MoxR family ATPase (Halopelagius longus), 322 residues
Amino acid sequence: MSDPAELYDSIREEVSTVLIGNERILEGLTVSLLTRGHLLLEGVPGIGKTMTANLFARATGLDYNRIQFTPDILPADITGTEIYREQTAEFEVRRGPVFSNLVVADEINRATPKAQSALLESMQERQVTIGGETFSLPNPFMVVATQNPIEMDGTFELPEAQRDRFQLKYTMEHLEWDDEREFIDRFHANPELGAGDVQRVVSVDDLLAAQSAVESVHVAEPVREFLLEVVTATRESEEILHGASTRATLSLLNATKAYAAIHGRNYVIPDDVLTMVKPAFVHRIILTTDAELNERDPADVLGTVVESVDPPEVSIGVPEEQ
């Protein structure tokens, strides 16, 4: 199953046996996985953030570790440490829970910035250094971090460098009335329903093949120019102090290719850029003091910036062989 669209449909159908609504979160998870990215998921407690990540991991068949971030967690609790063995008079490396295909950093912003920074090397370099020795992480490797809104008590805002390591950020909303009614009916009929009911529907080979397929998705020059114009607009906006970084630009480019692929296209259209720009940039831009005093929301500011850039014709994204 090397076709990204088939892979996404299989994951979505299997996860939907438990999960209802929030399909865009599954889209984002699949996009990040197929582009070797990481995803930040924000929402109030009890909304299903951790369950969504767990269901996704089970459907993809990835090794899954969950790390509960708390104010007293230490970097060694995440990456691992050296243990001294008296019997051999030697130090032994004990690998931490970050050594997994899919790592859920649960409530990441309840830990201190020092503990949060333990993920920087693994997310960027896909390796971990313990006691001066470097260890490679499994392939594929993905971090899905959940966080509570920063206005809640006991939270620490993620540093800019940490946020920039996440390819995409989504805010998980409450279910619509009809979806929540179906949800409670489903669990009323089967109280034991849970992540264990989701089966593996793809293999690691499928995922790696789909990743390669995404890399070959065509992005026409006018679409690339449109993407760069959007990036430049974030840097020139009077409401944005720091616009999208070069890493953010590449994240958006890769995200548009994966989004096109999971929807059955081997070429990117301007609408793909418009769809993915907010998840790719909303957590990266830093507003000016005036914008914050005016209680402007980063997503709203970003929407205004994007509207100021005229997209090219839709047909211009189609490669000649189409």
About this structure: The first strand starts at residue 39 and ends at 42. The mean pLDDT is 89. The first helix runs from residue 4 to 15.
